[in-house]
Description:
Layout: E1 3-6, E2 27-31, H1 34-38, H2 44-63, E3 68-71, H3 82-92, E4 97-101, H4 106-119, E5 123-126, H5 135-142, H6 150-161, E6 165-166, E7 169-170, H7 201-213, H8 230-243, H9 245-248, H10 268-273, H11 278-290, H12 296-320, H13 339-342, H14 348-360, H15 365-379, H16 383-393, H17 399-410, H18 427-433, H19 454-465, H20 467-470, H21 477-485, H22 488-503
Parallel strand pairs: 1-2, 1-4, 2-3, 4-5
Antiparallel strand pairs: 6-7
Helix pairs in contact: 2-7, 3-4, 5-12, 6-12, 8-11, 11-12, 12-17, 14-15, 15-19, 16-17, 19-22
The structure holds flavin-adenine dinucleotide, ligand DLZ and iron/sulfur cluster (SF4).
Amino acid sequence: MATLRLILGDHLTRDVTALDGLAAGDVVLMVEVAEETTYVPHHKQKIAFILSAMRHFAEELRGEGIAVDYVRLDDPGNSGSFGGEVKRALARHAVDRLVVTEPGEWRVRAMMEAWAGETGLPVEIREDDRFICSRGRFARWAEGRKGFRMEFFYREMRRETGLLMEEDKPVGGQWNYDAENRKALPKGARPPRRLRFSPDAVTREVMDLVGARFAGHFGDLEPFGWAVTRADALAALDHFITEALPHFGDVQDAMKRGEPFLYHGLLSPYLNVGLLTAREVCLAAETAYRRGEAPLNAAEGFIRQILGWREYVRGIYWHRMPDYAETNALGADRPLPWFYWSGETDLACIAEVVGETRRNAYAHHIQRLMVTGNFALLAGIRPAEVEAWYLAVYADAFDWVELPNVHGMVMFADGGLLASKPYAASGAYIDRMSDYCSGCVYDPKIKVGEGACPFNLLYWHFIDANAETLKGNPRMAMPYRTWEGMESGRKAQVLNEARAFLDGLSAEPSAPRPPAQMTLDV
Ligand code: FAD
Ligand code: DLZ
Ligand code: SF4
């Protein structure tokens, strides 16, 4: 019995379950399709990264003597969709069944479930076992819980994997060293130069295709320095562990102009498409700690991001989809300001983060959460529009990880399932954790009136506008006490200035119209 085995652009590992039991006569199908490249206006580097990594992976499989049927985006007859390409491939090959690994997106899973009916062939959708916590294991953890808290989930994962454990106790006596990881960047700190990979001929060819076909998409295509093979991704991991991990913890939340990467891993695109595994990355950090090459707060903080947050958001996604994406607990309904695409704004922090995102298809966690995310939360932007933006602009963005981070962590649109309170902050937070404010026309210390930082105005506007939903939350008691204690004339002035600022936001560019692909229909 010959099998057609479909490998998606984020399944690029020899160990993917779709390849289990590969036999002579089987055909591996890989397809570049217009639907996947345009369902949001993905950053040009993201498309180039995925297509180039797919082409390299196909060559690796061929090198092993495996039959690979690879459909390129510009191949004549390309139907433009996964479903269309599966049907065309079935007409080319004498196979009896189709095997796939479950995708990272509800939308694609729903498509796959229809294929058996549409093709008349058995379709086997296999579990994606690249995650440490299976969907079944997460469901058992979640059962009966009203609110989910990452910290409790994470402890169970530490116990089950034995990572940073001494028998049944956490190494060092504490589960979490976050309190040590909130320092601002010390003056004179020099983060390491990051390993970049010069595009080879395959990547160059993909870049030419992307430059020509997706010119209207967000982001700069060059310079392109992402690894597109497992060998190079492993080199990037090695470089991170030696050069950056030792400092990762202390300044994990810091932000600095002109330093987009600081001591972060830059590993999420590789983890998400399958060039690296979560287990090997966590083990590499643990080994560095055990050898005395990285302090515990760094190794623990890094492992928690992967073993904790990454596994946790993936669990929530599959546990709660498809309804999860539909909620809007705070009733946010303002359109996404155009400056999220253009970066043209006098808010220096937003301009810096959007500019770095455009250049690198990357921003680190605190930039995503506390700058662009915080603004979207405070300004009450429609969750679906914010989600579509995040899904488009980052090289690591796939629905299973982007959606819970944006819908739950940033927008509190799930009403507190993922986070116990909204991550809302005034300009003081950004000022404390970055040097952005020193180059801004606004002043984070001015709360109202001439020069007041818009984050300060919007913070109290947010508190006031969402009192009905948030006032009863014990973790929000302090801001509500402060707001209620504020003199009524000052409150009115704050709200008036916040409303005037919000009225001035535009969802349209001031100059020429955007290219068609950048007008999102969400
Ligand atoms: P590091 O800071 O070095 O962290 C190490 C690893 O931990 C990352 O590579 C990543 O795999 C994992 N990680 C850290 N935080 C999270 C988290 N909250 N959720 C899941 N994994 C985490 N991550 C994505 O991979 N794809 C996304 O689409 C994505 N969207 C996000 C949107 C928002 C609004 C926020 C707040 C976070 C989002 N994240 C996303 C999580 C996180 O910002 C990125 O994983 C991280 O910035 C990637 O850079 P890094 O590899 O240098 O991370
Ligand atoms: C994100 C993406 C892009 C841009 N292009 C492709 C593609 O042409 N072919 C492919 O197999 N996958 C692509 N992907 C990744 C898919 O969108 C991804 O598999 C889904 O997000 C769900 O897992
Ligand atoms: Fe951002 Fe306000 Fe600081 Fe300007 S003053 S950079 S708007 S936080």
